[in-house]
Amino acid sequence: MTNQLIHPDKDSLLRLMLNDGEVRVMMVRATRMTQEAGNIHQASDTATAAIGRVLPVCAMMGGLIKEEEGRLTVSIAGDGAGGRITCGVQNNRLKIAVENPQAELPKLQDDRFDVAGFIGREGQIVVVKDFKGGEPFSSICHLVSGELGEDFAHYFTVSEQVPSLVALGCLNQDGVVLSAGGILIQAMPGCSDKTIAELELRIPFYANISREIYDRGLMQLATAWFEDFKPTFLGEEEIVLQCDCSREKMRRALAALGQEDLQEMLRANEPAQLTCHFCRKERSFTPEDISAILEENQP
Question: Do 190 and 257 fall within a single domain?
């Protein structure tokens, strides 16, 4: 039934430039990913609305990494009911973890989900970029509203020194995600004040991004919005929710606990159950497995 309600296009990231390179634009549809993540985490409607904003902006941030081997990790640590949210991105594959995904809040007076209450209005966005063969680079920015669009626009403008407009949205109710997506508009060096002013006039269109993409494709929408800005389309790529956890990674995590903790687990003589925070997949390690890990890591 849900598939009959949502737009048939796959989740994707659309890239384009405006006015001969004055402006960079990215647009994302993340409807199916948001539904899948909500199902995995048994998320409340408010949590799902937050997930439906985090996934699109992280997909666009991942799209800015030029190296295919580059990894991006975004952590949002606010003082809201949802706790910490962590999203990982590599090569258009995303994963997301929510500390308190089942926390629910009353709706606001305008019938919107209280995403800012779920995220928190005080806290930090931490972005870590990890490139193969190099040292990870991290940057930190304070939350300004908890609505996420404004927070990430502030991050781009302050931490990355790129004036940016970010609009994010999720249209969902009673466990069903009808649409989720976002748009990132960035002024490149040399962008004229006239171009910026004309783009700002269209902010009411961007602000309702989840409703706009509900029944239109990204290319169709971008063409309609930016036809007066000489758009150059650079490509549209599929994005997916796909965790990269494995038994071997969890085995390494066990080994990192140290001898004392492993000895205590061995004395319990029961299988150790490890659960991935991103995909909720469980993996079991027998006492024999733990004994083997101990032997391999003898000092």
Answer: no
